[in-house]
Design a protein that fits this description.
Shape: rod-shaped
CATH class of the largest domain: Mainly Alpha
Number of helices: 16
CATH superfamily of the largest domain: Hypothetical protein af1432
Distance between the termini: 71 Å
Largest sheet: 5 strands, parallel
Number of domains: 2
Strand order of the largest sheet: 2-1-3-4-5
Structural class: alpha/beta
CATH topology of the largest domain: Hypothetical protein af1432
Strand content: 5-15%
Length: about 375
Amino acid sequence: MESAPPHAPSILVVDDDPAVREVLTALLAEEGYRAFAVATADEALVAFSHTEPDLAVCDMKMPGRDGLWLLDRLRREHPDTAVIMLTGFGDTESAVECLRRGAADYLLKPPKLTDLIRAIERALGRRRIDLARRRYQLKLEQRVEEKTIELSTALRAVEDAYTHTLDALVAALDAREHETSDHSQRVVRFTRAIAEQMGISGVELGVMCRGALLHDIGKIGVPDAILLKPGPLNTLEWEEMRRHPDIGFQILRGIRFLEEPSQIVLAHQERFDGKGYPRALRGHEIPLGARIFAIADTLDAITSDRPYRKGTSWASARAEILRCAGTQFDPEVVRAFAAIPEERWIELRRRKVTLAELGDDDGSSERLVAHGGG
C-alpha cells in the first residue's frame, strides 16, 4: 500500500493485468488515496478478510471468477464497500447489468484519470451519505428502544401503584367484614384454578382474576349497620345489600384498566337459573368470569369459618356445588371444578401465589393480579 494520510479512503484494485494494477495504484496514491491491488477475485476476498476497503475497482473479465461474481459477493458480504467496474467492452447491456447488481459506476478501460477520480468521488460521496443515514437510523432505533424501556418502567410503576392501592383497599374491605383470612385473595386463586382447567389463559385470565379480586368493592357503599349486622337482614336492609354489585360496577367502569373486570363485579351475584341479582341474568348471559367466580366464592364460603359457624369440609363443599349445577352454577364450570383434585384445592387455600404464577400473557395485568392474589 502506498503512503497516504492515515484517514484517507482506501481503495482496492482488482485486475489480472499487472500493468493496470501498477498504474492505477500509483495514480490513486498520487491523488491521496490509500491504494493496494490484487490479481483475482479470490485474492480480493482474502484481502477483505483482513481489511475492508472503502471502495473497490474491479475488472469485469478475469481468469477464473469474473468481476460480476466478485461484485455479487461484495454486495452481499461487504455492503458498505462501494464498487466501480472496469471493462474493455463498451456494451450497454454489461453496464446495465453491473448497475443492476449494485455497482456504483461502470467505466471503460483504460479509464481517463479525470473520469476515474470523478467516479470515485461520486461513489465515496454516496457511501458517506449511506453510512451517515445508517448511523442515524441505528441511533434512532437505539433511542426508541431506550424510550420504550423507560416507558415500560414507568408503566410498571403506574401498574404497581394501582396494585398496591387496590390490594390495600381489598384488604380493608376484608377487615371491615372481619374477613381476616384473606378471603379476596383466596377466591382469586380458586377462580384462576378453575379458569385454567377450562383452558383460559392470557389477557382473559387476567381480567377474570381482577374481577374476582374486586368482586366486593361495592360494599364500600353499604352502611356498617347493615354490612356487620349479626342477625338476619330485613327487607329494606337486604335491598340495600343487593345494591353492592351495581355500586362496584359504577366505581370501576370509568377506569380503563378495570372496565372488563367491572362486568364481572356487576354480575358476580347472578345465578345460572336467572334467580340472581341485580339483573336476573340467565345462563350464558352471565359473563364467564362471573360464572367461574360464583363457584370459587361458594367454595371459600363453605370451607371458611364464620362468626356464627365453623367451616365445613372440602367434600361437603364439593357435594353442594355439584348439587347446584344447572341452578345456581353453570354445569360446564362445575365439571371443570370437579376435575380438580382435593389436594390441589387444599394447596391453593393455604399457599401464597407468586408474581409469575399470577401473570398473564400481555404482561400488564400480571402485576395487579399477582399482588391481589398473594
